[in-house]
Amino acid sequence: LCTEDGKKKVLSDNPPMPSKSATEVKGKHKRSNKQGEPRKVLYSMTHVQGYKVKKINAPILEAIFKKHGDIASDCVVKTASMREFILEVVCEVVKRIQTNDVATIVSDMEEIVMQVLDAEATNMNVAWLRAHLEAIQKRNVAQKKSTLIVKMKANTTLVKRAAKMDLEDRRMELRTAQERFDKAEKCVKVLDLVEMKLNDNFVESEAQRDSWPEQPIL
Asked: Where do the record's region annotations for Disordered lie (predicted)?
């Protein structure tokens, strides 16, 4: 291939190498991605009676304060941020309970109870929450018992149905056997009568024979 000035231009089959600056930028970009930390999720915050909490938990905390008062007033933790963290945990527990997803609550019950006990250890007033969790546990136990009883009733119904069918078969067998018994008994009674009649006839025949003494023919 010739250029406009007539000089030959050699074409290479290999692709052009990137410039040093481009390589450096690309390398820095990779290192930046590789060493980059996950972006933190920032929550919008607000204040509820002087406590700084997530805005999403504010309505729950307000409802708690309205019903139970300032549950953190006697908390032994003096650091405001720590008290607020514990309040956030309490709000999260209440939020999980409000979902009414009993299966999930029960499966996470151990973790939830530990969170409440940790809050209670700081003298946070969460006795009402612990009582609610105990009620959920009791309802769950009662529900399991009720479910077990329902299954047992269903099994009992099936077994009873089979037993009734077996009883009916036995009743039919008994009825057939009774009919055979009655028939055999009747047959025996008839044979008894025949035997008695034969005995009477035999006695009568013997008596008649004895009443006719043998006479000489001549």
From this structure: 1-39
State how far the Cα of 153 lies from the Cα of 149, in Å rounded to an integer.
6
Higher pLDDT, 42 or 35: 42
Q: How far apart are CA 120 and CA 127, in angstroms?
A: 7
Distance CA 75, CA 203 (A): 120
Q: What is the 3-state secondary structure (H, E, C) of 178-193?
A: HHHHHHHHHHHHHHHH
- Spatial distance between the Cα atoms of 45 and 104, rounded to a whole number of angstroms: 28
For residues 174 and 36, which has the higher predicted lDDT (pLDDT)?
A: 174
Question: Within 13 Å, how many C-alpha atoms sit on residue 76's CB side?
Answer: 6
Assess whether pLDDT exceeds 50 at residue 30. no
Q: What is the pLDDT of residues 149-181, one digit of tens each?
A: 999 999 999 999 999 999 999 999 999 999 999
Residues forming beta bridges with residue 48, ordered by sequence position: 51
Selection from 127, 114, 124, 57 nearest residue 91 by Cα: 57
For tokens 């999260």, name the residue: 92
**Sign of the torsion angle spanned by Cα atoms 193, 199, 202, 207:** negative
